[in-house]
Design a protein that fits this description.
The structure holds 2 protein chains of 2 kinds. By secondary structure, chain A is mostly helical. Helices cover about 70% and strands about 0% of the residues of chain A. In chain A, strands 1-2 form a two-stranded antiparallel ribbon. Chain A is globular, with a radius of gyration of 23 Å. Helices cover about 25% and strands about 30% of the residues of chain B. Classes of the chains: A mainly alpha, B alpha+beta.
Chain lengths: ~290, ~375
């Protein structure tokens, strides 16, 4: 069944993949190897050759309360943002699948947010949720102290969760909609004949059959919150207030490029990388192989 | 027991009308088969009864209650789908019991009813399997059990046998018939297979292009097709229809010079009227001599007999010969067309030209 071109000459095949390999090497393997190098060494404060320290950097970060805070914040962010974006996108996809009025427009428009870069999303939400101007200012005027992400850690977390889920809803929506549309219409009709209401059909038929899509998106969303949330945090909260939104990926950036502690930042990125590798493994091992219903 | 009354029902998608005003009455406890080629609107009609399609205009009443605005679940119909539509994530028992679960039947009772139903369709040992682990015939049985267990007022079958192989199809056909005799539930069965239609139906409805062509008992429809379409659709091979002209009372003459007598005492058409003379291949009588001469182009053996193919007045003409000592590949045949088996149709309208129709055929006429 598998139709593929077989290259007889090795150098031609090599030449064709070379540009891609070069990009992957320069922008992924080389920086990653550098991160490994830094993670196991430490830089003398006044320059010179890096000193091999083994696992000491890791011991230090795992002993650091601030690091554990960032882990905690990241997990909270991952759970909240994934839950919100998956639930929202599922509701939207079910509505579009039922072809409610205007579904063609929604289907088209709903994908746009995913095409927006994270910093742009952050900027937009920074304006929308600014306590002193705009929409939230009006609410703050009516209920003083209702919303201020600059001082309230909970508010700041809510802000980045909103921003990130808003972006991810688009992505999830497309997958859920595709999943819903691949469920044979006659199954829903059979359930309707069996006396099941619209809402009950969603829970009894559509959601169970969407399980493979659901697990896939769960993993993708969690991974995304770990690695792609930097732009949003950097623009909106800058990790604050009082490290309330100091996500792991943001802490790596601030430790490395603000505090210029490459070694500790590198050790943290190795930890994050391991985490993402694990998620990717789960993705390939369990999710991709999950039985898809015919 | 519920009767179904369909009054001037139409269905359109946008500006395209696909069902053009259907009037039908299905008696309680009868087995009705709606037969027609694909795209004739038969499935749409069934789905309108089920409540899966909106009724564009007209009225459908089940057991005396107009159901136009009712949800499918409020209509008391159970449906068997062409592709079975089993819930792939549920076991056989869960599939069968889903309707009961939705209806809030207590677990113990549900279990008992599911088991009893599964046993009647021969699925007692498969309750824990998933649909993917079943064969086509078993899936079909699950679909049936799912319909039976609810004890509905009406069974709706949407071409349920068309995905089965030939042998299984016959077997399931018998089971459906047996089931109907046992339960006596009003059933509406949609198919494009005339054998299924003839064998299952108490009442046969033939549809074409969104209209009802004829309603009647299968034998009536076979014996007195109301239109050319029905004549060609029912019977295998289909009825021969030959252009001819009325030349004398009770006599039509073909372009080839065959004079064909017909029985239609009440039918008076002026001489010279163009008609189509119909006769079924199995009604053509082969005689030793003295009949009309028909050159045979080729002959097919079909086990129960032979089909001799030729042409008459420029149109194909088929003769069915019972198995017997006759010549296997005759070059010509001498045939007679018994007047009692000759049908006449109007070549313009396609309608049967005949003495006043009787019985259900009257209903069919008024239905159109």
């Amino acid at each position: 069944m598998d139709k593929r071109v077989t290259f007889k000459s090795l150098w031609l095949a090599g030449a064709l993949i070379a540009p891609q390999m070069l990009l992957v090497f320069v922008f992924f393997y080389w920086p990653a190897s550098q991160a490994f190098y830094w993670a196991f060494t430490t830089q003398p404060p006044f320059g010179g050759v890096n000193e091999w320290v083994g696992l000491q950097n890791f011991r230090e970060i795992f002993a650091d309360r601030v690091y554990w805070n960032s882990v905690q914040v990241s997990v909270l962010f991952a759970v909240a943002s994934t839950t919100l974006s998956i639930v929202m996108s599922l509701v939207l996809a079910v509505a579009v699948d039922r072809q409610l009025t205007g579904y063609r427009t929604y289907r088209f428009v709903l994908f746009w947010p995913y095409a927006i870069a994270a910093p742009a999303v952050g900027l937009a939400f920074r304006f929308i949720f600014a306590p002193q101007a705009g929409f939230m200012a009006a609410l703050n005027d009516a209920f003083p102290g209702l919303w201020n992400p600059a001082v309230n850690g909970g508010h700041a977390m809510a802000l980045i969760v909103f921003a990130n889920s808003w972006k991810m809803v688009a992505y999830n929506f497309i997958f859920f909609l595709a999943g819903l549309q691949s469920i044979p219409r006659s199954l829903l009709e059979a359930a309707a004949m069996d006396g099941s209401s619209v809402v009950r059909r969603v829970f009894d038929i559509q959601l169970p059959l969407l399980a493979p899509t659901f697990f896939f998106l769960l993993v993708i969303n969690i991974t995304e919150t770990f690695v792609d949330s930097f732009g949003i945090v950097d623009i909106t909260t800058g990790g604050g207030p009082a490290r309330a939104t100091d996500l792991m990926v943001f802490k790596i950036y601030s430790d490395g490029f603000k505090a210029l502690d490459y070694s500790m930042a590198a050790a943290q990125s190795i930890v994050l990388m391991t985490l993402v590798v694990c998620l990717t493994f789960i993705q390939f091992r369990f999710v991709e192989r999950k039985i898809h219903y015919k | 027991m519920a009767d179904i009354v369909i009054r001037n029902v139409r269905k359109s998608y946008g500006k395209t009308e696909v069902v053009h005003g259907v009037d039908l009455t299905f008696e309680a406890a009868s087995f009705v088969v709606i037969l027609g080629p694909s795209g004739c609107g038969k499935s749409t009609l069934l789905r309108m009864i089920a409540g899966l399609e909106e009724i564009s205009s007209g009225e459908i009443a089940i057991a005396g209650r107009v159901v136009n605005k009712l949800e499918p679940r409020e209509r008391g119909c159970a449906m068997v789908f062409q592709n079975y539509a089993l819930y792939p994530h549920m076991s056989v028992a869960e599939n069968i019991g889903y309707a009961l679960k939705v209806a809030g039947v207590p677990k113990a009772e549900r279990r008992a009813r599911v088991e009893a139903t599964a046993t009647t369709v021969g699925l007692g040992d498969y309750l824990d399997r998933k649909p993917a682990q079943l064969s086509g015939g078993q899936r079909q049985r699950v679909a049936m059990a799912r319909a039976i267990v609810r004890e509905p007022k009406v069974f709706l079958f949407d071409e349920p046998l068309s995905n089965l192989d030939a042998k299984l199809r016959v077997q399931m056909r018998h089971e459906i018939r047996r089931l109907h005799q046992r339960l006596g539930t009003t059933s509406v069965f949609v198919t494009h297979d005339q054998i299924e239609a003839m064998t299952l139906a108490d009442t046969l409805v033939v549809m074409n292009q969104g209209r009802v062509e004829q309603v009647g008992r299968p034998s009536e429809v076979y014996a007195r097709p109301r239109t050319l379409f029905v004549a060609g659709f029912i019977g295998s091979p289909p009825m021969n229809t030959v252009p001819a002209r009325i030349t004398a009372p009770g006599v039509a003459t073909t372009a080839a010079g065959w004079t064909i007598e017909f029985e239609a005492a009440d039918f008076r058409a002026p001489f010279g009227t163009d008609v189509l003379v119909g006769i079924r291949p199995e009604h053509v009588r082969i005689v030793a001599h003295g009949g009309h001469d028909l050159p045979v182009e080729f002959t097919e053996e079909i086990g129960t007999g032979r089909l001799h193919h030729g042409h008459l007045a420029g149109v194909p003409f088929v003769v069915h010969e019972e198995a017997g000592p006759g010549e296997a590949r005759p070059a010509r045949l001498s045939v007679q067309l018994p007047a009692s088996h000759v049908h006449l149709f109007d070549p313009e309208t396609g309608l049967r030209l005949d003495a006043a129709p009787t019985g259900t055929a009257t209903r069919a006429l008024s239905a159109a």
